[in-house]
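> @MW can you paste both from yesterday?
MW: sure, first one:
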Amino acid sequence: MTDMPHRRLGSTDLMIAPLVLGGNVFGWTADRAASFAVLDAFVDQGGTMIDTADVYSAWVDGHRGGESETMIGEWLKASGKRDRVLIATKVGMLPGEGGEKLAPARIAAAAEDSLRRLGTDRIDLYFAHQDDEDQPQEAVIEAFARLVEAGKVRVIGASNFHAARLKSANDAAREAGLPRFHVLQPEYNLVSRHKFEGELQDYCVTENIGVVPYYGLAAGFLTGKYRSDADLSQSVRGGRMGELLHGRGADVLAALDQIAEETGATQAQVALAWLMAQPGVTAPIASATSARQIAELMPAMTLALSKDQVARLDESGA
């Protein structure tokens, strides 16, 4: 699968395979051996971009943040595969030197910390992890621009931004002659569509902003694992899964089942292929804790759904 067709990420010069590996699990639910196995399998089967953040996994007792970046850095050093992958990471949710969120001094300090943990001289894609309305947008863009000018960051992106704020940030960048946000990372999947579809998606399509959605499998719901109330006890996420199941989730799962049978693919592969077929979307993000899971996910990159199949999935979750 190493001859995977690549897609251009928006208007940047980054070319990526149509599935991005989520790094939130590394150093958390995936230990060193499992993390290395997942990363090797992903790259060896044609994957090109790994997505992480400085805050991963600060929510775990005893963790401070930086665990995922550190694990990826150890793997990069041990594997020698730095030039075979693109690394995306984020700033804005882990307070520290320089302040909080997107304070310009925080962006500068956090980038240095991320580079050190990753053991690399550049971040290929650096995201503002969340919006920060306390900071002037031009000052935020200037802080990112300094990193681009220094060669420490190649492309900048925004995660969890609303349409108006993404537009005003890019307008400020354009007026100041500074780099704009070329990539958006929103929550988007078959059962969570309202945060992206509409004005935000239209803006990204018009401005050729590459979109790499997170929660592509709705935290596992779209794998078909949760189908009844009895299934909800399988995971700490059971409560959230129940909300999905009792909403439009059951209809979405029925459509996924039908199309999986028609295509010979799994429900997860169909759900990811639906995302890959959406206007503006370059590549969804999915996480894995074993090489076996990687082998299950990667065929989604070459699964072509018919217009009718996409339309039926559209309708099921609308």
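MW: second:
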Amino acid sequence: MLAGGILRGERVALARGITLVESNKAEHFEAAQKLVENLLPHAGQSIRVGISGVPGAGKSTMIEALGLYLAEKGHKIAVLAIDPSSQRSGGSILGDKTRMERLARNPRAFIRPSPSGGALGGVARKTRESIVLCEAAGYDVTLVETMGVGQGEYAVRNMVDVFVLLQIAGAGDELQGIKRGIMEMADIIVINKADGENKSRAEAARAELRMALHYMDFELPGWKPPVITLSALHGAGIDQFWNAVRDYRTTVEKQMGINERRRRQDVDWMLDVLDREARRLVLEHPSVARLMQQGASAIREGRLSPAHAAARVLEHIKKVFDAHDV
């Protein structure tokens, strides 16, 4: 039984389980949801950390350094790394196990590169289910790495306990074009590559970011994200970073409770699934799809404005719903 193997911590069973929940095949949906529901009572015990940042900030290097640090302290670490999908095969193309070679060889770590499947911002559609499976398998720290391309960070923020924004100094604009909204989502900000000649630039960037944070609003009352400099390459500052993660989680527990926060996230999980599937069901309805194709042709030929074409489709959808007394 697959659930039994996962509960025993069998890595092969865990990998098979994640493959099942990631499947887009309709015939796998019921089996995947039954597996998740069987494992839910055994999940929820890990610290969930989302890590995002600009390309080149060293996310994989930091995650490997953090994973090795935690493994030495007796933790079991699951890394769910969201890869961009190959347009040809649909599979992951970055190869996280090769980017985190030392951590991948550690028996206390499990690394799963998951293709984004074209999801907005590169967030894997089934990451939440994968977290449940990893926790049921006994992993007490779950690290979710995003591609760091923008809107996907909002989705990851809503499935983890702590959201970390990774920055680098010396890249021209010290804020590196990060939008205010993403900065305000961050619970902890880390400036990586604070070593060698770059150390002074990292400290300058830290001061600039701390100043910028004074003018921003954050979700948790009384918590202003600490800005931490570290060198993932040399492992310097990893302990300070992990202490900040634990401090934030403790603050959440005192103010609202981790379980209450996660229940809210679970409701959003349901709404996310409903939004995605309702959209698919509506747009795949034969008459709606046909009208959309007609509208697209009219737009290309200059006979109809995009807004007018959309209004026609929406009016038709309303009639379809009314006809079925929905």
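> thanks! The first helix runs from residue 2 to 7.
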